[in-house]
Design brief:
By secondary structure, the chain is α/β, with parallel strands linked by helices. Helix content is 41%, strand content 17%. Pfam families: SBP_bac_8.
């Protein structure tokens, strides 16, 4: 990429999950968004509050400049920019705002918030705007899908965060593998993995595919492989059906266990710094774009590359995302939409790429984007295009915990895949029954 890599490190957020329950016509959301008192017809000046998650200085500089550039040709719209760190602080700030009637008008937040805030009407349905928007057909279809609940759009994607297969070309060459031909399917992944594993005295000192054995992100790894095996997700949010113990899901877990049995260096997925890939002890792994640029230094600098998502029955990967949301309580819908539309324009997408390295999610920008860095940018775009987020359910945290625990039991030979995933499914079903 043409701009400094330091900006890239802070440009992208970590993975998050997608939730959601209701559509535009549900009671609560429809009533809230119908109370518009737009200033377009009155000529009055409107003040909007814009709250975004995160405090990264590079992103703050982008947002402050963007807000100023928007207000200049729109003098009747004043935007107060606010930011707050990830986690409980942001959730508390939003909860307090909605409880007191002082919620921000525009919110930049992750997928995770959709599960609780869409059903409460705290995020407005954007269908009436998106359906008449000139940018709709140019917007990456999957990006629109990731911001949708029950077929209705609630958020427009801003910062994508796909999981990408990353590999070490030097280790490929040492193992007699073509460094320009990474694996494309499960069979090839296993073949490459076996050739890349090194052992000394029975101990694994180098692994092929660097998968974790425990931690809070084990569910991401399983979801990637079950989706490649034709399963929709860990659960089907449309009918609350548990899928993590389907025959195809169990097959995917068995495949991951067979990778481990051939030889891995155990690490905890809660801490990406433990990933043996970062120190040159693994030839392949899954990571996001920030991981790639963080790893592309030190002992593996200039030796690593990105590969297209694997497939078994289909090509798939995990893709987190943050969105622009319109508050369900704002009295200034038209002005909020005008700002969201501006943020979603081709010009702003390209500016985010130039300033922060963020992939533009416009089909009309794809060719230009890929031409900037053909080796990596095509892979990134394709990973977003076939990416799936976490299930759009309010009980998603229970899904994560149950699957994380199940995968850890599998990796440490406590239980076989079928037994462990069936137990996880029972735990998830209890949560569904208690909704």
């Amino acid at each position: 990429m043409k701009r400094k890599k330091a900006a890239l490190f802070a440009a992208l957020i970590g993975a998050a999950a997608i939730f959601g329950m209701t559509g535009c016509g549900k009671k609560g959301t429809e009533e809230l968004v119908s109370k518009d008192t737009s200033a377009e017809s009155t000529g009055d000046k409107v003040k909007l509050t814009f709250l975004r998650v995160g405090t990264e200085p590079e992103r703050k500089a982008y947002w402050e400049e963007t807000v100023a550039n928007f207000m200049e040709p729109n003098p009747r719209i004043e935007i107060e920019y606010q930011e707050c760190g990830y986690g409980d602080d942001f959730e508390t700030k939003l909860n307090t705002g909605f409880a007191s009637g002082t919620a921000p008008d525009v919110i930049n937040f992750t997928m995770a918030s959709m599960g609780t805030r869409v059903p409460l009407g705290q995020y407005a349905c954007l269908d009436e705007y998106v359906n008449n928007w000139e940018g709709k057909d140019d917007f990456m279809k999957n990006a629109l899908n990731l911001g949708s609940v029950n077929g209705s759009v609630y958020g427009l994607a801003v910062f994508p965060d796909p999981r990408i297969l990353i590999y070490n070309k030097e280790l490929f060459e040492e193992a007699g593998l073509d460094p320009n031909i990474p694996p494309t399917n499960w069979e090839e992944l296993m073949e490459y993995h076996k050739k890349l594993v090194k052992k000394e005295g029975g101990n694994v000192v180098q692994t092929g595919f660097g998968i974790p054995a425990s931690g809070s992100n084990m569910q991401h790894y399983l979801s990637v492989f079950i989706e490649q095996n034709g399963v929709k997700n860990l659960v089907d949010e449309d009918n609350d059906t548990v899928l993590c113990n389907s025959p195809e899901s169990i097959e995917a877990a068995k495949f991951l266990k067979s990778i481990a049995d051939e030889g891995i260096i155990r690490w905890d997925s809660s801490n990406s710094d433990q990933n043996p890939f970062s120190s040159g002890l693994a030839a392949m792994t899954l990571g996001n774009i920030t991981d790639f640029y963080n790893w592309n230094q030190g002992t593996v600098a200039g030796k690593i590359a990105m590969a297209a998502p694997l497939m078994n029955k289909k090509q798939a990967t995990f893709c987190g995302m943050s969105f622009m949301f319109m508050s369900g309580e704002t009295p200034h819908k038209e002005e909020v939409w005008k700002f969201i539309e501006y943020i979603s324009s081709s010009e702003q997408m390209w500016k985010r790429y130039e300033d922060l390295g963020v992939t533009p999610m416009r089909e009309s920008l794809k060719e230009k984007y890929v031409a900037e860095n053909p080796e990596s940018n095509q892979v990134i775009y394709d990973s977003i295009d076939c990416g799936t987020g976490s299930p759009k359910v309010a009980y998603a945290n229970s899904v994560y915990n149950a699957v994380n625990d199940a995968m850890e039991r599998i990796m440490y030979d406590v239980e076989d895949p079928a037994t462990s995933l069936n137990k996880a499914a029972e735990e998830i079903q209890k949560e569904i029954d208690n909704q």
